[in-house]
Predict the 3D structure of the following.
Amino acid sequence: MITVLFPLFYLLSTTVSVEANSNRMEVLDDILKRLRAAKEGIAQVKANFSNEFEVAKSRLDRSNETFASLGNTIRNTQVEIQNEKDQLTTMKTNMVGILARLNRTELDLAGLNDVMSESTEKSESIKESLNQTLRELETAKKKEVYSRWDVLYSEKFLNKKLTKEMAQSQELESTRNFLGLFVGMNITNDVIRYLKSRHEDNMVCLHSGI
């Protein structure tokens, strides 16, 4: 009985062992398939990551270039702003100088106006003096008499400094000795009027021949 059962048991155990080995193979194949799939997935993820990394790196490089360009632009702008400030400072300095010159010119013009006003007053005084002289000459002409001092109204003597040579000239022969005292003086209308009023001792009549 035992002899009969032993081969049967061996046959059954061998069948079970073959089935078990078959199941293991299937499991191993499944595991291998899963590992291959996982490896392919990892490779795909790695490829995708590498692509994304390259894209990100390219963007970063472009950003760095943009920042560098922006930095250069900012530095150039700062230089231009400084140049503009320097030009404005120079212009301000020049304007201060121009204003100072304008103020001096204004003062000079004011002084010139004063001089012109004074000159105008003197001109008016001279004009009045000449008019007075003309009136005196006209009066003397109407009376047909003239003074020995009237010769001093000529262009040769009037408003000129009397020199020794002028005092000894032929025109002043009748007053030569007396005029020697006035050498160095300006022969003005006032001087002539003084001489005519104080030293008119030799009036000459045109018709009397005196």
The radius of gyration is 66 Å. The CA atoms of residues 74 and 142 lie 97 Å apart. Residues 202-210 have pLDDT under 50 and may be disordered.
